[in-house]
Amino acid sequence: MKKKVVVATVQGKAYFLIANQLKNQAIPFISLVPGESVPAKISVVITTEREKQSLNHEKILVFHGEDDLEGLIDEVKKFLLGKEDFEKIVVGLDPG
User: Fold this and answer.
1) Dist. CA 16–CA 92, nearest whole Å
2) Which residue ranges form the domains of the chain, and what is each CATH number?
3) Tens-place pLDDT, residues 67-77
4) CA 27/CA 4 separation, integer angstroms
5) Any bridge partners for residue 7, and if so which?
6) What is the pLDDT of residue 93?
């Protein structure tokens, strides 16, 4: 998978939490300092509320804290799949 996610923050804790979660989910990403030019092929940018204004991209996801991290990564996955919402969710149970 090509890198289509950017993590753009200079806040240490936010970067650490986001980067670790992306690595755990095997989602490749590149790191930028807010204000740097975002490559054209990037699907989504993750940053903090304070640094959001210094980025120019059509899809920016804002990290609001550790409690928000799982939902944030789910949003990233949806965009990488080319989806904004899913029409149907199928849940299966394995009786074995």
Assistant:
1) 34
2) 5-80 (3.40.50)
3) 989 999 998 98
4) 9
5) 31, 46
6) 87
Q: Which two tokens stand for residue 34?
A: 């807010």
The residue that leads in pLDDT, 17 or 79, is: 17
Sign of the four-CA dihedral 50, 4, 68, 14: negative
Q: What is the dihedral of CA 45, 19, 67, 25, to 10 degrees?
A: 90
Q: 46: which strand partners?
A: 7, 61
Whole-prediction pTM value?
Answer: 0.80
Give 83's pLDDT tier (boundaries 50, 70, 90).
low
- The token pair at 77 is 């996955």
- Provide the residue type at 17 as one letter: L
pLDDT at 18 over 90: yes
